[in-house]
Amino acid sequence: MQFGIFSVGDVTPDPTTGRTPTERDRIKAMVAIALKAEEVGLDVFATGEHHNPPFVPSSPTTMLGYIAARTERLVLSTSTTLITTNDPVKIAEDFAMLQHLADGRMDLMMGRGNTGPVYPWFGQDIRQGINLAIENYALLHRLWREDVVNWEGKFRSPLQGFTSTPRPLDGVAPFVWHGSIRSPEIAEQAAYYGDGFFHNNIFWPADHTKRMVELYRSRYAHYGHGTPEQAIVGLGGQVFMRKNSQDAIREFRPYFDVAPVYGHGPSLEDFMDQTPLTVGSPQQVIEKTLAFRDYAGDYQRQLFLMDHAGLPLKTVLEQLDLLGEEVVPVLRKEFAAGRPADVPDAPTHASLLARKESEEVTVA
């Protein structure tokens, strides 16, 4: 399994001090968090994509390219690439460029986004969100696999004899996860292409996540990519830790109560009871995360949200120390125990290249 963190890049006042970081502060903090993730032995750093305040990551490939130059092992990803409002041609070019710069240490997660006003800003209609996701990804998939593309669709101008540059590294398209919280059409899309499916696993109860993952697994098998158990699944999660659970709850509560996404709603205790949020000791985080397998099966990627709601950088870096030193080593061992041999690892550039070369030998 791969373990890592994802950031939504929000600029939120610290409710305990009243201080609001500048956009520069927040961007630099995200870079520092990524570097810390590699330092403590995590596998993945993922950034969101947003084009509206109070968020800063409007250009994920710029940030990830910069981080690639300062890391050696970390897989760089997105926690949302807006397949609906971005031009698929530009996505193809930008992420192929990142793939070369990062020596293959990258992948990306397609998503529709959850900010309605973004659609008209980029000339689209939110009511066409699903149709945009389907058509745009169908084109992107071809752009990475065909040297010359002739194409015509509903939402962008036609292409005649078009070649996206640069071509993917080693002739291997970047691996794609399709992220969705509630849309079965996106789980179906991931299954159709044999891509990964990522459930954000932040706001919803386990039975909802279970239904979405099971739908994806069954349709993955339906399309002939393997057994349901061999489908590529990723989950999110959200944690805040201190050595003593009561200290964690006391420290995190003011941040939870005013968080932009769920503040002023359910109590912290109710939210922890009804969703995957874990606020407590490292052992409590281990126990709750291991329970994800009970409803998601053996899966390939676990990403945690740790740097939102105004938490200061110092606190986030302390959280990463706990995650890397006390939580992830145990999770690696426990998730590996009893994992069936035919359940694949998370795809990497190396594994995808090896598969490509094997298929070429078989054909020859």
Automatic annotation (TrEMBL):
Pfam families: Bac_luciferase
UniProt cross-references to InterPro entries, sorted A to Z: Bact_Lucif_Oxidored, LLM_FMN-dep_put, Luciferase-like_dom, Luciferase-like_sf
Region (Disordered) location: 1-22
The entry's keywords: Monooxygenase, Oxidoreductase
Domain Luciferase-like residues, every copy: 1-295
Acetylation recorded as keyword: no
Record protein name field: LLM class flavin-dependent oxidoreductase
Lineage of the organism: Bacteria, Bacillati, Actinomycetota, Actinomycetes, Kitasatosporales
